[in-house]
Amino acid sequence: MLDGLNSSFEHFGGLTRRVVLNNTSLAVKKILVGTEREETKAFHGWRGSLPLRADFCAPASGWEKGAVERGARYVQGLFFQPVPKAAT
Questions:
Q1: Which among 5, 21, 36, 47 is least surrounded, fewest beta carbons within 10 Å?
Q2: Does the global pTM surpass 0.70?
């Protein structure tokens, strides 16, 4: 995951200010109260060197996942679909 994030930052030529992640065990050691999370040592160390805010989805909140997926489809439509070609 960290390599993928690094590669995406390199590909797009910079950092985002914020990442939104599901509660993957690669980043979250323990879910605390509200939006608080205890990050894994590896994720905390990686993120600690970057001016990057990490937000995590609320557990068992299907509505939140849907909103994130709609946002992902919107970005895919803007940036990752081939440009149509026409003869004229």
A1: 36
A2: no
